[in-house]
Amino acid sequence: MKRQTSQRRAILQVLEHAPGPLTPQEVFELASKEQASLGLATVYRNLGNLEANGEVIAVHLPGESTRYEPAGRDHHHHFRCECCEGIFELEAKCPVAVLEGVTLPGGFMVKDHELTLYGLCPNCQES
């Protein structure tokens, strides 16, 4: 049985309500508003345990710190705003999923993929 501490609940709640994957520092800043006793080391430890238990997944964006989001969400891609540096989940149908299982020229077989789009979020476009 997994131990569900108030700190772990605060971390999971923050991740569940975020518009996209968060860094451990972002999780700490948001979750500590609800759980004052939360420390950054505790966030790292809990994220590691949550990932090992399959409750969260690590998201690796090029040139970025590892981010985390809840597991169990449908396949999706991410958008990084070049102005506010926010990371957002995209709900649009995946344009490259049709390539999975396909053998490409040269004998390469696609098994998985990640896609990150870059640009300006709606709030930054208005600025």
What attributes characterize this protein structure?
127 residues; alpha+beta; Arc Repressor Mutant, subunit A; Dna Ligase, domain 1; 2 domains; 3-stranded mixed beta sheet; two-stranded antiparallel sheet; 4 helices; 5 strands
Describe the structure.
The protein has 127 residues and is of the alpha+beta class. It has two domains: 6-70, Winged helix-like DNA-binding domain superfamily/Winged helix DNA-binding domain (Arc Repressor Mutant, subunit A, Orthogonal Bundle); 77-126, Dna Ligase, domain 1. Helices cover 30% and strands 17% of the residues. It is built from four helices and five strands; from the N terminus they run αααβββββα. 19% of the residues are buried.
